[in-house]
Amino acid sequence: MNINQITTGRKLVVALSIFCIIFLRLDAFSQKYNFAKVDSVLNNAQTKGWTAGNTALIMQNGTVVYDSAFGFKDREAQEKMQTTDIFRIASMTKPVVSVAALILVERGKLKLDDPVYKYIPEFKSPAVIKDFNPKDSTFTTEPAQSEITVRQLLTHTSGIGYGFQDKELVKVYVQNGIPDLANTGDIKLADKMKKLGKLPLFMQPGQKFHYGLSTDVLGYVIEVASGKPLDVFLNDNILKPLKMDDTQFYMPANKQDRLVVMYSDVKGMPLFRLPNQVKGYDIRYPVSGSKKYLSGGSGLTSTTHDYARFLQMILNGGELENVRILEKTSVEKMINNQIGSIGLRRGNKFGFGFEIEQGNQPINGAKAGKVFWGGAFNTTFWIDPSRKAVAVLMTQVYPALHSGNLFNGFETAVNQALDNSVL
């Protein structure tokens, strides 16, 4: 055997050794988690008729450890759900817009305690509903005790409500053409937010957490403060830098076949395909209509992949893959209590865009410090700093009678899998 043969042999041994090490490491990684229960929960959602299909993604330590799709994007057409399919994420838009506002705070173009009327004069000296007559929808008002601030928009303590959940406001909003959600109408954010500013509040600013159109108002504040349309500002400062290439308000033609069909799960009926028109809203809004209304509270469409990147940025303290979106101090404000003694369900608190698990009455294996939210069309997410994990689950069901069963089962199964992982 000559020197060249020996050298070649040694190189082959080294190469095989390296391959074996890499293979063993990859094999060990693939065996690190047992997500069988997660699979079962998500698959059972279809067999039980809770959803037509869903996708879920889990990351831990910055790495995707679970990425699966179940069921159908379009059950009637027998089109299988793909992990790249696009969902209406509704209120999961709110954390993204909250980040946009904090970017402007960092740049000195916005202050948390600025009065909203500084950017939208119509909000100056608001009135609050005092007495309401449900028979004819007449009401009396009293002056607000203080002006609404940007901070209160971020924390839903502005006193602004939602028409669909506040009987005192629904007819007032409808009569004035104020939309609760993204829609197909030929309307603009500026026009509707200016009109909203002249309408009464549901309650006094700063006194209670009350979910409503605050983030839609915040979206227009962002437009005024930045001098850019909301979609442009989000694209330039959040979506493009994070490579969230499939997140947008309105979907271009080449992506429209990836929009998941909407279904409905109501008591006493099997899951059914939701009609395009529901209570005056066209659920096809991401792909049809005027495509003008940029709802900061409900308008985005996205994928589990994209949204997980956004969540990982938050978990990392404001940066992802060496791209910084927010300073760590701003992220700390988002994920820590910003509402003082005001309480939410189970004693939880609210930061800027996120509900915060306090650990007083934890459920599903959650730990104190978890931040989370969801969307009306049956999407949910959470960030778990203690486990260094993020999770996203997306379906398209409205109303969703069994959303609690699905979300609780999913979170419990995920946390068990993470806690039982083998290092």
CATH architecture of the largest domain: 3-Layer(aba) Sandwich
- Which CATH class of the largest domain? Alpha Beta
Strand arrangement in the largest pleated sheet = 3-2-1-18-17-16-15-14
Largest sheet: 8 strands, antiparallel
Question: How would you describe the overall organization of this protein?
Answer:
With 423 residues, the chain is of the alpha+beta class. It has two domains: 35-92 and 232-419, DD-peptidase/beta-lactamase superfamily (Beta-lactamase, 3-Layer(aba) Sandwich); 97-228, DD-peptidase/beta-lactamase superfamily (Beta-lactamase, 3-Layer(aba) Sandwich), CATH 3.40.710. Helix content is 32%, strand content 18%. The protein has eleven helices and 19 strands. The chain has helices at 3-30, 36-47, 93-106, 150-155, 167-175, 189-196, 214-226, 230-239, 304-315, 328-334, 403-419; strands spanning 53-60, 63-74, 79-80, 87-88, 127-133, 138-143, 263-265, 272-273, 277-278, 281-282, 301-302, 319-320, 323-324, 349-350, 355-356, 371-375, 379-384, 389-394, 397-400. An eight-stranded antiparallel sheet has the order 3-2-1-18-17-16-15-14, sandwiched between helices. The chain has a three-stranded mixed sheet with strand order 8-7-19, with no helix packed on it. A hairpin with a 4-residue loop joins strand 17 and strand 18. Helix 2 (36-47) packs antiparallel against helix 11 (403-419), helix 3 runs parallel beside helix 7 (214-226) and helix 3 crosses helix 8. It is globular and about 60 Å long.
